[in-house]
Amino acid sequence: MITKEIQRAGIPVIQVTNLTKIAEGMGSNRILRGNSVLLVFGDPTLPLPSEKAYREKRVEQALNMLEKTPPEGQHAIIEE
C-alpha cells in the first residue's frame, strides 16, 4: 500500500521482497525478489566477498528498474 501512495505522488518505487505475489496483489508495479524475508539484499551462506558482490548486484538491479516505467497495469518483476 505504501508503494502505491508514494508512486501516486510521482516518486518511482521498487518493492524488494521475496513475497512477490503479495506485492503484485497490493499493486506494486516494480518488484525485485529478495533472498529471504529477513535478508532481502543479503545471503549469509556466501563467503564475505561473494556476499558483497551479491548485494551490489541486487542494488544495481533495483536502480536499473527505476529507469524504466512498466506499462500501466503491468508489473516489472525480477526474480532470481
How would you characterize the overall build of this protein?
This protein is α/β, with parallel strands linked by helices and 80 residues long. The chain is 41% helix and 12% strand. It has helices at 2-8, 20-26, 48-66, and strands spanning 15-17, 30-33, 76-78. A 3-stranded parallel beta sheet has the order 1-2-3, sandwiched between helices. Strand 1 (15-17), helix 2 and strand 2 (30-33) form a beta-alpha-beta unit. The longest helix is centred in the last third of the chain and has 19 residues, at 48-66. It starts with a helix and ends with a strand. The model has no long low-confidence stretch (mean pLDDT 86).
Q: What would the principal axes of the Cα set say about the shape?
A: elongated
* Side-by-side strand order of the widest sheet: 1-2-3
* Residues in helix, %: 40-55%
Strand portion: 5-15%
Individual helix count: 3
- Elements, N to C (H/E): HEHEHE
Quick summary:
Helix content is 41%, strand content 12%. The protein is built from three helices and three strands. The chain has a three-stranded parallel sheet, sandwiched between helices.
Chart the SSEs and their pairings.
Blueprint (H helix, E strand, L loop, with lengths): L1 H7 L6 E3 L2 H7 L3 E4 L14 H19 L9 E3 L2
Parallel strand pairs: 1-2, 2-3
